[in-house]
Each structure stands twice: as C-alpha cells, then as structure tokens.
C-alpha cells in the first residue's frame, strides 16, 4: 500500500498496483522515496478521490481485453468525465502533475469535446481569460478566415 | 495545448479571437505540427474528400465527409473549391490532407494550372507550371520526403518525368525514366522518396 496526502492534509491508502499508473509515483517508488506518506501539494482531497477512483478502476487495464471488461471500462470512463467544468480541470491538472497518461487523454478529450463549437465569449468565460485584443485585431483574424466564423451551431452556453 | 490540439480547424480559427496569447499559440508552427500529428492518429478525424461533376459538365462540387460511418451522411460539408472562376477542376493526388489539383478553362487542357490545396483551411497556392504538356497518360504522385523535410510532387508520362519540391520554385526533370510506375502512382497515397534527393 502507498499513502498519498492531499494539500488539505487528508491521507489516502492506495494499492501499489493502482498507483503506479502514475509515472511520477512509479518513479518515486523505484527510487525508494515512497516509504512513508507522499505529499501532493497541488491536489486537494476532492480531486484526489476522483483520481484514486479512476486508478482503482483501471488497475487491470491490460487484462480487461482478455476478460471482456472493455465495455465496462468504457462505460465507467463515460460516467467518470461526466462532471463539472471546474472539477474536470482540477482532474486534468492532477493527471498532468502525477503524469497519468490515460487519465490525461480521457479528460483532455472531454474538455475538447466541450469546447467544440463554443462561442469565443463562452470559451473566455469558461477559462477565465480576459480579452486583450483590440476590435481591429479581432476583425483582422475574422477576415483571415471568414468561412470559420460563418454557419450555425455556435453554442454560447458555459458548462 | 493538449486540449486544443484535439479541436477541429474551424473551431481553432474562431478561438484565435479569445486573446492575444491564444492567437499567437494557435498560429504557431509548433502547435500546427502538434495538431496535425494528433489529427493523423485520431480515427474520428479522418475524412474523405469527394469531388464530382454535375451531369451537364458545368459545375464541379467538392465535399468533405468524416470517415467514421456513423456520421457519414449528415456531416458532409460542402467545400468551395479554389479558383472557382475556372470551370474544370480535377484532383490529381493527395498526401497528409494536402491535395494537388489542376484547374483549366477547357477540358483536357494540356497546360492546366496546378494548385496545392488545403481543404481544411480553405487555402491554396498556385504551383509553378511544369515544363512538359499534360497528356492523357500523365500521372501524379505526392509524398513527404523526410530527408529534405519537404513535400514533393512527381509527375510522369510516357516521355518525361519531372519532380517539384515545394521549397523550390521550379520543376526538375529526371533523366532516368520510371517505367512501370505509371498506374501504381495512383494507388499510393504517399511515395517513399528514397532514391531522389
């Protein structure tokens, strides 16, 4: 068992087989640095619980193909990313920090799917970006590729 | 960047308007390369380009359809072809989403204009005119040469063979004649430019 500690001082015990899906922790274990609790100063307990849930489910990913559990995993993944935008971003940050490739792929794809066809205004709001382009600069970008700005299905909602 | 490289080209063009940083990021060659690599490996973003001529021969239409069968019918996107003032239009060969097309005023023109077209950004450039005339048996091949980091177009007919590296401004004649490759050029999407340089 490996002990992880979130930045709000909660400890979690995870099976080694599950936790080594994180390249970062795998390296720590190999280097013998994981004997006591591993502090994760960038991850809060709420996010860490999600990540551990994913790790535990994907513990035997290689075997899933043999045992016909692939569909089950797929369903789990679909359910897993069904979370709020902010929460999803926290998980992406954690997956990036812990270097969990599959989780990163899953969450980034979900984020991309949500951004697809969103209006510029909605994207700015979702990612808390302030627009620093002048009106002329913005117009110039539109003039460069007017076809990209035409057409329907532009979604102005933020979620 | 990991998230953005999964988005379609159209969305990315719009998102350039988000902020100065996003405009710079999306326009950056490194990002473009990352986006291309991702799209190439992504089953869902594979697309097929279909062009056909209306029966009276007056109009050519181009469509872009995703290859995953679920979406096929609904998602066909009509494309404006480049240089639409010229009525005749033919796709010769394609590689990595780039298409070599010829356009002309009359059918079977021996000196058509050669264009390199990127349908996903709706942009095209005029290629230099080849030396030899285009005849019925002229075949084209198009591929990426990783030794010179450039795309090359090969054009061959029974009497001559020419090659155009996109970085160069003119076609180069190849003395050695390539017998027997004429029809096979049609079937390969990317040629291995091993012997040329």
Main attributes of the structure:
heterodimer, A: 159 residues, mainly alpha, Potassium Channel Kv1.1, Chain A, three-stranded mixed β-sheet, 9 helices, 57% helix, B: 197 residues, 2 domains, four-stranded antiparallel β-sheet, 11 strands, 32% strand, disordered C terminus, F-box-like_dom_sf (chain B), F-box-assoc_dom_typ1 (chain B)
Explain this structure to me?
The complex is a heterodimer of chains A (159) and B (197). Chain A has 159 residues and is mainly α. Chain A has a single domain, classed as Potassium Channel Kv1.1, Chain A (2-Layer Sandwich), CATH 3.30.710.10. Chain A contains nine helices and three strands, in the order E-E-H-H-E-H-H-H-H-H-H-H. A three-stranded mixed β-sheet of chain A has the order 2-1-3. In chain A, a hairpin with a 5-residue loop joins strand 1 and strand 2. The two termini of chain A are 37 Å apart. Chain B is of the alpha+beta class. Chain B folds into two domains: 40 residues, no CATH class; 142 residues, Neuraminidase (6 Propeller). Chain B contains four helices and eleven strands. The longest helix of chain B has 13 residues. Chain B is globular and about 50 Å long. Classes of the chains: A mainly alpha (159), B alpha+beta (197). The interface between A and B is medium-sized, with 30 and 23 residues.
